[in-house]
Amino acid sequence: MRTFGPALLILMSVVNSYAAPHVARSSVVPEPGLLLLLGGGLVGLATLVRRHMS
């Protein structure tokens, strides 16, 4: 088994101190306008498919 020397442990702690800080993740909530746009597109596609099938 290989053991790590103190120099490597110091180097690892220095590298970790410069790493990006941890950011709390927030839940992503879509905007109402985006939902309306998506819903309108789906309704339009459904209408085109229905007209094409009949």
Keywords for this entry:
single chain; mainly alpha; 2 helices; rod-shaped
Low-confidence parts: none
Global shape: rod-shaped
Give the topology string: H per helix, E per strand: HH
Derived from helix and strand composition plus strand pairing, the structural class reads mainly alpha
The helix count comes to 2
- How many beta-strand segments? 0
Question: What share of residues are in beta strands?
Answer: under 5%
**Biggest sheet character:** none
- N-to-C CA distance: 73 Å
What is the averaged pLDDT score?
76
Radius of gyration: 27 Å
Approximate helicity band: 55-70%
Structure explained in plain terms:
- The protein is mostly helical.
- It is 63% helix and 0% strand.
- It has helices spanning 6-17, 32-53.
- The model has no long low-confidence stretch (mean pLDDT 76).
Topology record:
Elements lengths: L5 H12 L14 H22 L1
Summarize the structure.
With about 55 residues, this protein is mainly α. Helix content is about 65%, strand content about 0%. It has helices at about 5-15, 30-54.
